[in-house]
TrEMBL record:
The keyword GTP-binding does not apply. Keywords: Isomerase, Magnesium, Metal-binding. It comes from the Bacteria. The active site is at residues 150, 246. This is Dipeptide epimerase. PANTHER family: D-GALACTONATE DEHYDRATASE-RELATED (PTHR48080), ENOLASE SUPERFAMILY MEMBER DDB_G0284701 (PTHR48080:SF3). It comes from Ectorhizobium quercum.
Length: 327
């Protein structure tokens, strides 16, 4: 039976705005892909990211261009070579996983995991701002066990100290989004270590991170923009201790599962992250994150409105997705 593909742009308002070193956004624009066979539908979501040269219209066009191949029965494994990694392939790949679960009556979790999926503690993100504003937000969320703090300026010491002092019982990870100047790298890492920070994510720009080979890594250094697929791993071994896997970078759950396996075999710690999107985008990543050292799947917590049904969050604990949502 032929398969039908549809894709649409949807917008979700962000509660209070979201600021990183590259700018501020007040809305999350996502693309929802639906692949149907008969009366069964599979859904996937992606977030085009300008940092990687993606636009909403460009990704939407890439998804629609795949419709003839999908109608002809393109498989997830064939998709890996038919499309490049990125947001478009992610939406199609996750929709195919969801469709396969519906057609077979075998949940995606049962096909991926050896044991039932369990609730996970996710990070909660503190946007970049002035130190006092960030400290107030950290104090408001000091009950959360894991805070992810956006930094990425040449003078982040005051931010690091303020946030860590405001949430002394929380584990803190920092995300510099490629924003630390190389001449401040060692200083900021030393301050992070002194304050008990658990991990620093992508302190230097991808492709210009060789300095990480030559400094003492006093905290775990995690690659984000520097890693997309398994082919990137070899070049990272002397610079990073962990990698952040995001489905919109890998181009879907299929590639992400392979990347995680290969990274673990090389001794990297695993972080599973996300763009700012809805529960539909987080659901497959929750299965990928079951044995990760760090989980950062708080996208829906940052939205003023999520999908219905969506993921269930109990504080910072996120429950596995119901099949009515995905998988």
């Amino acid at each position: 039976m032929s398969r039908r593909l549809e894709a649409t742009i949807e917008t979700f308002p962000i509660s209070g705005g979201f600021t990183i070193s590259r700018g501020t956004k007040t809305q999350a624009h996502v693309i929802t892909c639906v692949i149907a066979e008969g009366n069964v539908e599979g859904r996937g979501e992606c977030v085009p990211y300008a940092r990687y040269g993606e636009t909403l219209d460009g990704v939407l066009a890439d998804i629609h261009a795949a419709a003839p191949a999908i109608a002809a029965g393109l498989t997830r494994q064939e998709l890996l070579t038919a499309m490049k990694p990125g947001a478009a392939r992610n939406a199609i790949d996750c929709a195919l996983w969801d469709l396969e679960a519906g057609l077979s009556d075998v949940p995606a979790a049962a096909r991926i995991l050896a044991a039932p999926a369990k609730p996970l503690v996710t990070a909660y993100t503190i946007s970049l701002g002035e130190p006092d504003v960030m400290a107030a937000k950290a104090a408001e969320n000091a009950h959360r066990p894991l805070l992810k703090v956006k930094v990425g300026t040449g003078d982040d010491e005051s931010r690091i100290r303020a946030v860590c002092a405001a949430a002394p019982r929380s584990t803190v990870i920092l995300d510099a989004n490629e924003g630390w100047p190389e001449d401040r790298l060692a200083h900021h890492i030393a301050v992070s270590s002194e304050c008990g920070v658990a991990l620093v994510e992508q302190p230097l720009p991808a492709g210009r991170d060789a300095a990480l080979r030559d400094i003492e890594r006093l905290v775990t250094i995690c690659a984000d923009e520097s890693v997309h697929t398994g082919g990137d791993l070899a070049a990272l071994r002397d610079r990073y201790d962990a990698i952040n896997i995001k489905l919109d970078k890998t181009g879907g759950l299929t590639e992400a599962l392979t990347l995680k396996r290969d990274a673990q075999a090389l001794g990297f710690k695993i972080m599973i992250g996300c763009m700012v999107g809805s529960s539909l985008g987080m659901a497959p990543a929750l299965l990928l994150a079951q044995d990760a050292e760090f989980v950062d799947l708080d996208g829906p917590l940052l939205l003023a409105r999520d999908r219905v049904p969506g993921l269930v969050y109990e504080g910072s604990l996120v429950l596995p997705p119901e099949q009515a949502l995905w998988g």
